Amino acid sequence: MDAYASGEMAAVPGGLVTLTDRRTRRSWAVDVAPYLLGTVPVTREWYARVTGERPGDGGAGQGRLPVEGVSWGDAVRFCNALSRREGLAPAYRVHGDGDEAEVAWERSADGYRLPTEAEWEHACRAGTSGPRYGPLDEVAWYRGNSRERPHPVGGRLPNAWGLYDMLGNVWEWCWDVYDAEVYGAYRVLRGGGWFDEHWSCRASVRRRSHPAYRVDDVGFRVARSRPAPAAGGA
């Protein structure tokens, strides 16, 4: 089975990452534990196989495009459905239906979930400190080279940790609330998309949106927590 359609995961090492917000001019450091992250965004084919739904075009030959037109809530429900499909404990408790449902994260669960914002940036940087992990035209689909459309995942160069499309192609939902005091339930988006100028496709750029928002340049990738080593283990 095509790894891009079946959800290949990369082991991401732990580390310290510093996040910044240009709006508030605030910086904060986060210590990230090791975790697993999808090597590519969730594709249309994979999303359809797990959920039975085909947001976006979904026509013949479109399966390797990143799924888009999915809300944050859609991404949460995909994670739980995939966890159940693979016999894992769902990471999210969902109370209610549709876009108004309340979601709580069961942090001890071994199932699939969205990456935190800190995990996303740590993975994107892959040990680098600049705005990007490589020359933009080589690593990302953005307005300058995308012909204003999404492209099949994995078509640009990966970063040093084997992760593709961390910049460009589609923005990616993260778990975190953006700024509850100012924007309420709005969640964080990262990475830039196929319609964005070069300045939006940087490791540090933060975007926000309501968790019910669906648009054609927003998708997601999945993460999993790595279990702590057993007591007395190697």
Detailed description of the structure:
The strands form 4 sheets. Strands 1-4-12-7 form a 4-stranded antiparallel β-sheet. The longest helix is centred in the middle third of the chain and has 14 residues, at 72-85. The chain has 6 helices and 12 strands. It is globular, with a radius of gyration of 17 Å. It is an alpha+beta fold and 234 residues long. A hairpin with a 6-residue loop joins strand 5 and strand 6 (102-105). 18% of the residues lie in helices and 22% in strands. It has helices at residues 3-6, 44-51, 72-85, 117-125, 136-139, 180-183; strands at residues 9-12, 15-21, 26-32, 35-38, 92-95, 102-105, 112-113, 171-177, 187-190, 206-209, 218-219, 223-225.
Quick structural summary:
With 234 residues, the protein is an alpha+beta fold. It has helices spanning 3-6, 44-51, 72-85, 117-125, 136-139, 180-183; strands spanning 9-12, 15-21, 26-32, 35-38, 92-95, 102-105, 112-113, 171-177, 187-190, 206-209, 218-219, 223-225. Strand 5 (92-95) and strand 6 form a beta hairpin.
